[in-house]
Amino acid sequence: MNKIKYLLIVLIAAFIYSCAEDDFENPPAPANFNNVAQVVVDGVDNDPAVLLKSKENDPWDTIAWIPAQLYEGEGLVTHYTVQIDEQGNNFASAIEFQSNSTSDTSIVITQGTLNSRLLANGFSPVQSYDLEYRIKSFVHKQLDSLYSEVFSFTVTTYRPDVPVPESLYLFGDATTVGWGADTSLAMYNDEDKYVVFTYLEKDKKFRFLKAQNTDDNTYDFDSFITIPETVKAAKDEDNNFIFKGNTGWYKIEADYITSTLSIAQHVVGSETYTYTYENLYLVGDYNSVDGEWDYDNAVAFTKVGEDLFTITRELKDASEFKFIGQQADGDLQWGNIGEEGNSGILGPKDYNGDITFDGGNNSYIIEVNIKEGTYSLTKDIPKEIWLVGSINGWNNYGQYLAAIGNDVHVGYQYLEDVDEIKILVERSSWDGLWGAGATAGTIADGGDNIKVAEIPTYDGEGFYEIKFDLANKTVVLTPVAIGVIGSAQAGDWSTDVNLTFNTATNVWEGQVDFFATGEWKFRANDDWVISFGGVLDNIEYNGGNLATPGAGTYDVVLDISGQEKFFATVTVAK
Q1: Domains of the chain, residue spans
Q2: Which end of the chain has less neighbouring CB within 10 Å, N or C?
Q3: What pLDDT was estimated at residue 6?
């Protein structure tokens, strides 16, 4: 009897020790319980989802749930995880995403985390998968886990080593632009698929860049998984593509979401688009002269090269137009690629919108390069102009006006109240004159004589800088007093020796004391805003410094009333 008693004591002690050892983290499970599983209240909204390398740190989705209802008397601790697996696999290979703490009832899963976990568990990049998820709560190892309802969703994975670019450019000797990264062709971003319509030459190479003027080689042959039969690996140092299809005009689409490159001809109706055309026409609603969307009378371009066309037209604000290959509303049509706008990239019919532009009733040169797949709008402003008027007896040889910036030109003249001036565009011809605009201080193509006394910045008889801004259509007069400055005449660059304008000879003159060494130049109004430099007898606006003529006192004469491009002359004599 005592043996039995001792045996019972040992068994009870062993049981107590076992319970304490097993339930170190949780107290013993209750004998009776009726737990209720957690309920998902915020499920997957991003469905179907295309995961992107460029957004790997952004949330794929947030999943939230109402906590499980557990037996409370024993203080049981609950742990939650989100389980994901392929649909129909019954979570046999579940991937688990655990919440940060036992009290969390939601989890944020980033695109990068989901993508990396899927790839690490045997899923392939750039594939779409039908998946399902549920919330698991683990309470105690003696108790069954609790599971939420199962929900389905679809995601497409990405290649983690090749990001979707923010922009993309095409270049290479297979294209019209060659290997100049600075002239590479911009591609149109169509929801992260990059598209361009351009020429490719057989048996020559090309590659993609994420930006112009970069040597980055991310987007080489190995950046795609799926490549058309007409493209092979060049197997060269830069891992270029080589085009093996027939030379022609193609739609090139680079899709880094699906890692797919496609190159195909563009067909509309009975027309297969090529790069060889003899005629091109302009149609739309762009000025008050040409008919509004008058296809039958569309204005013809001039062909100036291989599939290079140009036309000069006045464009109003809110202009809308396209280019057509026939004087009819036919299948040959080009506009702004993808949508309306002014990207400079051509798109053919069924893949374009109107070209829209605010032209301000100015004249523009419209250039279309079908072979390259581009167009441009350039304000028709003369690059070289001359000044004519009562100041030079209306001599249509004119005085050359120097360019000092984009469409800004200057000249220098002594002006009187009665003087009138104009801009001469074609030297020795009266064609293309610019004159007074609608208001004082403005200029216009074909305007009347500009009366200098009516220019707001005119301040009475004197010597002026005359500045014409052809882009903004303004004329500004600035009174000018010219002096000599430099280390050759003062030992430093702080003091001007002022010259005097001789109205009889139209020159600036004065005496200057020079040192044996040093440099000098002319400037206006004791300021560097207007400065003159260059070499003796051939001075150019904003040129370099002049060398000292040697120690002594010299007569310095500056003549800036000449007619040639290097319109100023300098004489220095003792």
Answers
A1: 39-156, 169-265, 271-379, 385-477, 482-573
A2: N
A3: 36
d(CA 240, CA 280): 34
Q: What is the distance between the alpha carbons of residues 228 and 233, in angstroms, rounded to a whole number?
A: 11
Distance CA 207, CA 173 (A): 10
User: For residue 324, what are the β-bridge partners?
Assistant: 281, 333
Give the pLDDT confidence of 158-204 residue by residue, as tens digits. Answer: 888 888 899 999 999 999 999 988 899 999 999 889 999 999 999 99
Backbone conformation region of residue 182, classed left if phi is above 0, alpha if psi is from -120 to 50, else beta: alpha
Please tell me the CATH code under which domain 385-477 is placed: 2.60.40.3620
The secondary element (H helix, E strand) that includes residue 114 is helix 111-120
Residue 54 buriedness (CB in 10 A; 0-12 / 13-18 / 19+): middle
Closest CA to 406 of 361, 351, 468: 468
Q: Given a cut of 50, is residue 16 above it in pLDDT? A: no
Distance CA(554)–CA(511), nearest Å, equals: 5
Assess whether pLDDT exceeds 50 at residue 7. Answer: no
Q: Which pLDDT band, with edges at 50, 70 and 90, does 487 fall under? A: very high
Note whether 39-156 and 385-477 share their fold. yes
pLDDT mean over 350-375: 95
Residue pair 234/267 in contact (Cβ under 8 Å)? The answer is no
What confidence tens digit (pLDDT) does each residue in 390-409 have? Answer: 998 999 888 888 878 778 88
Burial of 154: CB neighbours in 10 Å, binned 0-12, 13-18, 19+: middle
Mean of the per-residue pLDDT values for the chain?
Answer: 87
Superfamily designation of domain 39-156: Immunoglobulins (2.60.40.10)
- Percent of the chain scored above 90 by pLDDT? 60
Query: Bridge-partner residues for 233, per DSSP?
Result: 241
Extended beta strands in 293-442, E state: 299-300, 302-305, 308-315, 319-324, 333-337, 346-348, 352-353, 355-357, 362-369, 374-379, 385-389, 399-405, 408-415, 420-424, 434-436
CA 390 to chain centre: 48
Q: Which residue has the tokens 């296809």?
A: 295
Residue 388: predicted pLDDT: 94
9, 173, 336, 381, 410 from 368: Cα distances, Å: 101, 21, 11, 19, 33
Peptide linkage before 48 cis (omega within 30 of 0): yes
For 271-379, which CATH class?
mainly beta
Query: Residue 112: its pLDDT value, please?
Result: 92
Cβ partners under 8 Å of residue 448, min gap 6: 435, 436
